[in-house]
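#lab-general

N.A. 3:47 PM
ok so I finally got the sequence cleaned up, no stray characters, all 715 residues accounted for. can someone with queue access submit it? mine expired

B.Y. 3:52 PM
send it over

N.A. 3:53 PM
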Amino acid sequence: MTTQEIIDNLPKAVLNWYPFEKNARIFVVKEDTLQSFIEDTKQYDYVIITAVWEKEKDPVRLFEMAHKKLAPSGRLFVLMNNRLGIRYFCGDKDPYTDTVADCLEDYSNIGLDHANGRLYDKVQMKELLSRAGWKKLQFFSVFSDLQNPSHMYAENYMPNENLTNRIFPTYNNPDTVFMEEKTLYQTLLRNGMLHQMANAYLVECVMDTALCDVCHVTSSLDRGEEDALFTIIHRSGVVEKRPAYPDGIKRMREIAENLQRLKKRGIEVVDAKVENGALVMPYIACETGQLYLGHLLHTDLEKFLFEMDRFKALILQSSEVEEADQKDGNGAVLAQGFIDMVPLNSFYQEGKFVFYDQEFCIEHMPANELVYRLISNFYSAEPQAEQIYPREKLLERYDLLRERERWQNAEWEFLKKLRKETELLEYHKKTRLNKALMLENRKRMNRSAAFIHRYENIFDGLEGKQLILFGTGKYAQKFIELYGHDYPISLLLDNNPEKAGCELYGIKVESPEILQKLPKDNYKIMICIRDFSGVIRQLEKMRVDNFSIYNPNIQVPVKPRMSIQVQEASQEIPQKKPYHIGYVAGAFDMFHIGHLNLIRRAKEQCDYLIAGVMSDERMFELKQKYPVIPCHERMQVVAGCRYVDQVEELPLGRAGIRDAYEMFHFDCMFSGDDHSTNQGWLNAQAYLRTQGSDIVFVSYTKEQSSTEIRKKMQE
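B.Y. 4:20 PM
back already:
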């Protein structure tokens, strides 16, 4: 499947699990079929009304029409957003007004005359359906939302698992979110509020027939055709795992076989068998291993460690050992590795861990990789676990620290491939949370509008004035490296008296008291300190009000060199090469011949080459590891290359290809040809072409890479 096909199919998960009869008469009411539905006179077995009804001034008439157009045994399904959804309490925008909190206030401050639509809550929906004649109905709570419906729960069913690392929240507008939704799921569960605050609902309505017996559905349509599954729990106590596409039938057989392999090794598993292309198993009314271990961590640390040791022993018991542990950090190598042997995929029943959902069996797998995943999986669902017992201690307990980076990378590569993270990168950037931006949003909520102005437009008010930096630490050094050549810095301030009279990058350091001797109209202060609240109070006490705050993780760079110098260059330099302004991006960690060839071949095709260097934080976000060489040093190395005209750091949260184009407006981006068939890169190329830009894939030395250098160093 293409990336776009995966994205287009995600919303279908809200009903694709339902066993519609082969020849059933179905009418789906969407925006382009609404008028046809109104005019239609036929009878149907099923009517499905999408959230288009939320745009109707009188939605009751649609529900009444459905009542008349359905056979006596027919069913009506209605999709709706919940105006009390947890996403809106976290700061997400109303999809119809594009404003925060309108739905929470039930539109009391704006009225509805001008609105493109509105959201309703469960009680309001019941009233609308009752007025339309529907009396027998049930609600399914939908998470994350109607566009990404990965989990659905019948209103009288409560999940017995930790949802923190099960559900990946999505938002209408992640840029306004100030609180992480997934950290609230367990609180909602414990307080009986999960259903009331679901982000959306699927409502089933019937007349003369029984309601559906399903109480829980999970879907994974984002995994593609082979790995996309529906897991359906019936009230009868039967659980079925059904492939979403025909190609997934093979996976059902593999899961059943993997469970049998584990059973033969003495591992407790849920009995499962393949029937009619689906994997069928009994419902286990026990808490998951994840919940059990989480409870122990908070109540009995000694027993928690005992049970973790026991879980590790089960992993080692799951397969024959091909290579014994050489005590070199690599651990034993198992003939078969079951990478889904994690607490989340187990029940704790009568003192034993009982496993299910063992989708993958990997040949010749290091046992330590599986043990690392055990720890990683557990801690990802327990936000407070690090404060109680840091994972570092468990890694040390199981001798995983020496090769930690290796196990971390292996887990990430597996998950990245399974979840189609590369293919869906651009989509996730639009719908998922940027945690750094979320934290900044929370900070801004505590500040005035004037503060936000100072925080975002940091170079305003600088014209004709001296620039003075407050701070001499990492933030100040990063500011000087990024902007020192564009904005001359006259002075540095530091409250540490021992630093007065010293220099940083040739700039003198003084005590803040010197400001009392300078005319206030002649300078602007740039605060370059992480914890800046005290400095703000200090400046306000000195009646200094022309200041801004620099944040290296969030701030989008302002580039006068691009806007002025390059524009001037475009008038002076004749267009002899295919492109004028070129762009190349990378980590450039441990600069090698592959980097040099890429940059040289890019420069051969453009007059002016900009090199974007990933920040340390961005590299960790992408690869789950920090670079060997810090960003400011990598920038200096790249700047020393004669083919590069300009070097810029790519800040966290603004490091994508579209972000770079918005900052630099380059004529062409250059990348290695190993990305030429990657769907994410092809999507970016298609976008750039709509802007009059392009991506050119060039060959370079593939045999050399930072990863290969690391391997050689280890050897």
